[in-house]
Design a protein that fits this description.
Elements lengths: L2 H13 L6 H14 L13 H11 L17 H5 L2 E5 L8 E6 L5 E5 L5 E6 L4 E7 L5 E6 L16 E6 L5 E6 L3 E7 L5 E8 L2 H4 L16 E8 L5 E6 L24 E6 L5 E5 L4 E5 L6 E5 L8 E5 L5 E5 L13 E5 L6 E5 L14 E4 L5 E5 L4 E5 L5 E6 L4 E3 L2 E3 L2 E7 L1 H9 L5
Antiparallel strand pairs: 1-24, 2-3, 2-27, 3-4, 5-6, 6-7, 7-8, 9-10, 10-11, 11-12, 13-14, 14-15, 15-16, 17-18, 18-19, 19-20, 21-22, 22-23, 23-24, 25-26
Helix pairs in contact: 1-2
């Protein structure tokens, strides 16, 4: 190509460098005429910045408008929408530190301040299976995932666990317990033991009695259900509780007719009440129960409706129960949407809730949690999209942050987070003290 053609193309590009879209189209047309660059293609609705850059490279000229050009199109929707700190009302937010472990983050746990700045990290020896939180002693309790080469049903599940441990501020593991059936959640009890959700094959004679779900979608004719295990930190089992001995497969049915029948109950969250009773959430049957630790009996139950695939029960100081109600298949509403609900245990009525006015604008079909904060606000983790936000009792948003740490998943890059927690400066000081002088 002749030098005069490149000079004309260069002049054309630079003349239109600061003009968006229309000017860029003119620049391309003039560039094609001036330099006969066959690889420059026509632009239809939006200027193709890639073409401009390629043309610049071919002509050997410097594009002085590079800083003003839009970047190449980001293919991950969550990144296009914006990541990191998105909003903060310093006057109304609970000023603290937020802890989270990205599900595809290879075991890195982050602590950020209210401005979204990372102030500390822990590197755990296992990927999350599925989250970690600070204990009252300031240590990090962590549910990890043990990768196993096995044909066991649980081994191929994304919510598999396998190990629970406790670490100090510096990430030094203080104790570790493995349980191959462990999944989703585990907590440290006030008596010093740990309680784990575990999975086992449902007795075969009960499979045909389980109602709901798509017929024929069992796992090789088998179904799985949950049991709870209380263990000491040296691995000694002191208590077990099996769902199939206390729930009814005919009435505690799989809520969604479209769901698979591989797993019956699918527990996803635990909590210990002030009196030692245990709260358990079951996603597949859209049910939350309370177990009396003295008798092992179910003394409270709430199902669908109003619940739908809920997660993360949190007992509140006022005696109520806070839940992330995911809503993938509501029996009392035509829309799929998520909400945060506070339930009065005595009446089983919803006494407070947060949801978007256009319901579908807040929705996480899986994972997620909510935490009531000391100032009366509520921290929400919209887990499937790695979005954390804080709302007032009146439902006004005062803080928002989107997890910027993406990792590879079965369906491409994702920033999913099982749960997020907010801690005060005093709680973080206690956590730092667990690291000693190191």
């Amino acid at each position: 190509m002749g030098g005069s053609g490149y000079d004309g193309a260069a002049k054309s590009f630079n003349d239109h460098a600061d003009v968006p879209e229309a000017g860029l189209r003119i620049a391309i047309d003039e560039a094609r005429k001036a330099a006969n660059i066959s690889r420059v293609v026509a632009i239809n609705e939006v200027a193709d910045v890639t073409v401009l850059r390629e043309a610049h490279r071919e002509m050997g000229i410097k594009d002085r408008s590079a800083e003003k050009q839009m970047p190449l199109v980001e293919q991950t929707k969550a990144k296009r929408a914006g990541i990191g700190l998105r909003a903060c009302d310093h006057d109304r937010v609970f000023d603290g530190f937020t802890l989270f472990a990205p599900q595809s983050g290879a075991g890195k746990v982050y602590l950020i301040d209210i401005d979204g700045t990372v102030v500390h990290t822990w590197q755990m020896p296992y990927p999350p299976g599925n989250s970690g939180y600070l204990t009252d002693r300031g240590t990090l309790f962590y549910n990890g995932k043990v990768i196993e080469q096995s044909d066991r049903f649980i081994s191929r599940q994304p919510w598999k666990g396998g190990v629970a441990l406790e670490a100090d501020w510096n990430g030094r593991v203080l104790w570790e317990v493995r349980q191959p059936d462990h999944h989703h959640d585990g907590i440290r009890l006030r008596n010093g033991n740990l309680l784990l959700i575990c999975l086992a094959q449902l007795p075969q004679h009960l499979v045909s009695q389980v109602k709901g779900g798509r017929p024929g979608t069992e796992h090789n004719g088998e179904m799985y259900a949950d049991y709870l295990v209380e263990m000491t930190t040296d691995g000694r089992v002191v208590w077990q509780w099996r769902t199939w001995e206390h729930l009814d497969p005919a009435t505690d049915c799989i809520t969604a007719v479209q769901d698979q029948r591989e797993a019956w109950t699918h527990a996803n969250g635990l909590a210990e009440m002030a009196n030692g009773d245990i709260v358990v959430s079951f996603r597949n049957i859209s049910t939350v129960i309370i177990i009396d630790r003295k008798t092992d009996e179910i003394i409270w139950k709430l199902g669908a409706p109003p619940l739908s695939g809920q997660h993360a029960p949190m007992p509140l100081p006022n005696g109520n129960l806070l839940l992330f109600d995911n809503g993938p298949h509501r029996l009392d509403h035509t829309m799929t949407f998520s909400r945060i609900i506070e339930v009065d245990l005595a009446s089983k009525q919803i006494v407070w809730k947060y949801q978007e006015k256009r319901e579908y604008e807040f929705y996480s079909p899986r994972i997620s949690n909510a935490r009531r904060l000391p100032n009366g606000n509520t921290l929400v983790c919209e887990g499937d999209f790695g979005r954390f936000f804080e709302v007032t009792a009146e439902g006004e948003l005062v803080w928002e942050y989107v997890n910027p740490y993406f990792g590879d998943g079965p369906n491409g890059p994702n920033n999913r987070v099982f749960r997020a927690y907010r801690y005060s400066a005093e709680e973080i000081a206690r956590a730092k003290a667990t690291g000693g002088s190191q």
